[in-house]
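Quick one:
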Amino acid sequence: MTAKEGIIHAQGLVSILEQLHDDLDAAVAEAYGWPADLPDEEILTRLVALNAARAAEEAAGVIRWLRPDYQAPAGSAPQAQQAGFEIEEPETRFPGETGFLSAPWPEAMAAQAAAVRAALAASADRPVTAAEVAAAFSGATPPRVAEWLATLVALGQARALEDGRFVAG
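Output:
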């Protein structure tokens, strides 16, 4: 590689890294429900306030477990809360089941995660594929649902089977 090619290559990686960083910033802002263009000082102020609120909750005995079966095996039920609001897990049925009605796919990330988790819970009697879960929602795509299923597996809230199906975990 020539010196000029090396410079171009290095600059290209920087631009890719910058785009990934911007995408991550936007995803984090969306997850918190904040505008994506907040100045650094406002982000820091909000994070300090959120940390103080979480510390107060913990002092009052409220713990938000990520993996309750692992972190609290003695049985403290997890709180279904995110950023100070309740997440409603919709009742989900699958195509072919009695009373099937395709639910709308939520726009918010937290609601999507809750919907996929509820769909797994609703299919407790059998493993399901990402396509089957996606079919339970109008507007959901199997690749997006597969991402959420992989996330739930990583968090210990689902289990992936060797054949590509999933069960609540």
